[in-house]
Each structure stands twice: as structure tokens, then as C-alpha cells.
């Protein structure tokens, strides 16, 4: 399968408009499942469309398997149909007047594939995706999940070297999303295709991708494995964007001096960290420990104290909200918490779970 390299890609809409993509460089390995993750308007779909050939970059180069398909400086632009890439849109883009079989066969028909070979390919891919029984129906007669499978089948029938997916699961309910995530992982494992998947849903990115590229305001923030992105965020944006329950952030240079700030200072001392470099600290809710401690344990863990404000069951886990000197701090417990609302409790964090950031909001490596 194909590798993709983006070199110094820039995209602007209008002479005086701010760049939608600003100097983006990234390598997507062969057979990699890469998720472009970020909030709406960050440039992820624009990036995907430039790879597909539906958008022209303002500057930069795009290479596939080491060969340029786009080079603004050289005036090179390979048209989409020559790139051997399959694209699935957010709205599926099925032909409503064609049967499911004809929709799946559409690209092969345009390629003038012999009828017998085309029919065999269509039958095989529809069987693989479990939609063969709907072959004579029309898109309007299918559910959202079934239409999604048809869109995938139409694209897979072309046997592209690169699969491009633009938020294809956003129109599905939770159950169908889970089914389609499983289907996409199976397709990737079996076909070994290079996949670029656009999403704003961090859960999709974490469960699907082998590599995640986090974007914000047209700039690449971090590229790494799901574990890297979650456990070693490169900056405050990544730390705050990724996480089912937002990370707890304590600002150390906001001029406040209270129990929560004093607790962070004690942690930095205990962990032998130079506090002068640290502008803010983050603790993910599942990493925050709480409960009753002895005086010796309080000293050993540099523990703080807070009051339990609320305990919310979420099915298999509990969200615990604490008040610490007027700050709201959240923890997640995987067993039923042995505390009650209004009770005072100790809380602490292990060294490897403390995320520290400097005044430029970049990660400080412990």
C-alpha cells in the first residue's frame, strides 16, 4: 500500500484571509491508519481534500510512494481520478435513482471494466460488507448504517491504495457507530490499506487509529500513537482536547495562592521538579486518587484535601466531583467510591500521572 508525505503544505482562501492550513508537514506510512483529529474548522477536512485532489494547496508538495502528485512550485497537479484513492464522504453521496448494486458498480463502470469481472468484484465486496441481500433496493430504502456500508463497498470495489474517510460515522447512532468502527478495523486488518480518517470525535480516533494527528487552527499540534497522544500530550491544547472527561488544569501563574496551588507546589517538591519552569499542571480524572490517609501517608503522597460535592454513576465507573478551595476537581473511580457527598477526603497523584506545561503551554518532560 501507499505512503503519503505532505511537505510544507499551505492553504489560504483569499489574499488577505488567514491560512486554513499553515505550513503542514507530515508523513503517513504505508498501511497506516491515521486519524486527523481536531475541532471543527481546524483544517482536517481541507487536508484530506488536498490529498484527494479536491482542493489545490496554495503552497507545498504532496508525494505518494516518493513520487510527487502535487507540487505548487513546479505547477504539478495530478487529477483525482489518477491518484488511485477512494473517498467516502460524510453524507455518503449515493445515487438515489440507482440500485445498491449499480451504486457499488458505478466506479468500475466508469473504468470500463469487463461486465463479468465487474459483477464478480461487486458480488464479492457486497458479500464482505453484508449488503448482498440489498442489491436490488435503492438507497432511500436502507438505514443509515446500511447506506454507510454501501458507500464503503463502492469505494472498496475500486481497490484503492489509499482510503480517505471524511467523518463517515457522524450521522450514525451509538450502536451503529460501534458496529462500523469494528467493520473499519476489520477492513484495515484484512486489506492492509493506508487509511486517512477525519474526525472530531476523540473516542473514534483513540479506538481506530494506529496514529493520530491532532490539529488546531490549521496547525499540526502532535503526531503519535493513541497512547502517546493521551499519556504524553505535547501541549496544553492536546491535553485538554483529548480525554472523555476533561483533564484537571491548575494554573500556577494566575496570581492565586490557595490550597489547590499549595498542593501542586508540594507535589513538585516531592517529585524534585523545578517549579520555576511550571506555569500549569494537569491531572487526568482517572489518575486522581482519593480517600482517607494517615498522617504518614499524607506526607508520603504530598496529599491535599477537598470536599466531595457530587458522585455520578456512569455505568461501570463513577465521576466524583471535589471542591478544593473553590476549584472544581474531578476524579473517576472504577469501583463504587467509599465516600459520601459533603465528606472531606484526601486526594493525591503519582509522579508519572502529573502533566506539566511551561508558559508557552508546551509539555515539560519529567
Automatic annotation (TrEMBL):
Belongs to the ABC transporter superfamily. It comes from the Bacteria. PANTHER family: MALTODEXTRIN IMPORT ATP-BINDING PROTEIN MSMX, TREHALOSE IMPORT ATP-BINDING PROTEIN SUGC. This is ABC transporter ATP-binding protein. Keywords: ATP-binding, Cell membrane, Membrane, Nucleotide-binding, Translocase, Transport. One of its GO terms (cellular component) is ATP-binding cassette (ABC) transporter complex, substrate-binding subunit-containing. InterPro entries: AAA+_ATPase, ABC_transporter-like_ATP-bd, ABC_transporter-like_CS, ABC_transpr_MalK/UgpC-like, Mo/tungstate-bd_C_term_dom, NA-bd_OB-fold, P-loop_NTPase, Transp-assoc_OB_typ2. GO terms for molecular function: ABC-type transporter activity; ATP binding; ATP hydrolysis activity. It is found in: Cell inner membrane. The keyword Transport applies. It is a peripheral membrane protein. Coiled coil: none annotated. Residues 4-242 form the ABC transporter domain.
Amino acid at each position: 500500500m501507499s505512503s503519503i508525505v505532505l511537505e510544507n503544505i499551505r492553504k489560504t482562501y483569499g489574499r488577505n484571509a488567514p491560512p486554513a492550513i499553515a505550513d503542514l508537514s507530515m508523513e503517513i506510512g504505508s498501511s497506516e491508519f491515521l486519524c486527523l483529529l481536531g475541532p471543527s474548522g481546524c483544517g482536517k477536512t481541507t487536508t484530506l481534500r488536498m490529498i484527494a485532489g479536491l482542493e489545490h494547496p496554495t503552497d507545498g508538495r504532496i508525494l505518494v510512494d516518493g513520487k510527487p502528485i502535487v507540487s505548487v512550485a513546479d505547477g504539478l497537479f495530478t487529477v483525482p481520478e489518477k491518484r488511485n484513492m477512494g473517498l467516502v464522504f460524510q453524507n455518503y453521496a449515493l445515487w438515489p435513482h440507482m440500485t445498491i448494486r449499480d451504486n457499488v458498480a458505478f466506479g468500475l463502470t466508469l473504468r470500463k471494466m469487463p461486465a463479468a469481472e465487474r459483477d464478480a468484484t461487486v458480488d464479492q465486496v457486497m458479500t464482505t460488507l453484508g449488503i448482498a441481500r440489498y442489491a436490488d433496493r435503492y438507497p432511500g430504502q436502507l438505514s443509515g448504517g446500511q447506506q454507510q456500508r454501501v458507500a464503503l463497498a463502492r469505494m472498496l470495489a475500486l481497490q484503492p491504495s489509499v482510503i480517505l474517510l471524511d467523518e463517515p460515522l457522524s450521522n450514525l447512532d451509538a450502536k451503529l457507530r460501534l458496529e462500523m468502527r469494528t467493520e473499519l478495523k476489520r477492513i484495515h486488518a484484512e486489506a492492509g490499506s493506508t487509511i486517512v480518517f477525519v474526525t472530531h470525535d476523540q473516542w473514534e480516533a483513540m479506538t481506530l487509529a494506529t496514529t493520530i494527528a491532532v490539529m488546531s487552527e490549521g496547525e499540526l499540534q502532535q503526531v503519535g500513537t493513541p497512547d502517546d497522544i493521551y499519556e504524553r500530550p505535547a501541549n496544553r491544547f492536546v491535553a485538554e482536547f483529548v480525554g472523555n472527561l476533561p483533564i484537571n488544569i491548575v494554573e500556577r501563574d494566575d496570581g492565586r495562592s490557595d490550597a489547590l496551588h499549595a498542593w501542586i507546589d508540594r507535589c513538585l517538591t516531592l517529585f524534585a521538579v523545578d517549579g520555576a519552569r511550571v506555569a500549569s499542571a494537569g491531572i487526568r480524572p482517572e489518575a486522581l486518587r482519593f480517600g482517607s490517609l494517615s498522617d504518614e501517608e499524607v506526607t508520603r503522597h504530598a496529599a491535599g484535601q477537598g470536599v466531595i460535592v457530587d458522585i455520578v454513576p456512569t455505568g461501570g465507573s463513577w465521576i466524583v466531583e471535589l471542591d478544593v478551595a473553590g476549584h472544581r476537581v474531578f476524579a473517576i473511580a472504577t469501583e463504587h467510591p467509599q465516600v459520601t457527598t459533603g465528606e472531606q477526603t484526601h486526594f493525591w497523584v503519582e509522579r508519572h500521572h502529573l502533566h506539566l506545561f511551561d508558559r508557552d503551554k508546551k509539555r515539560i518532560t519529567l
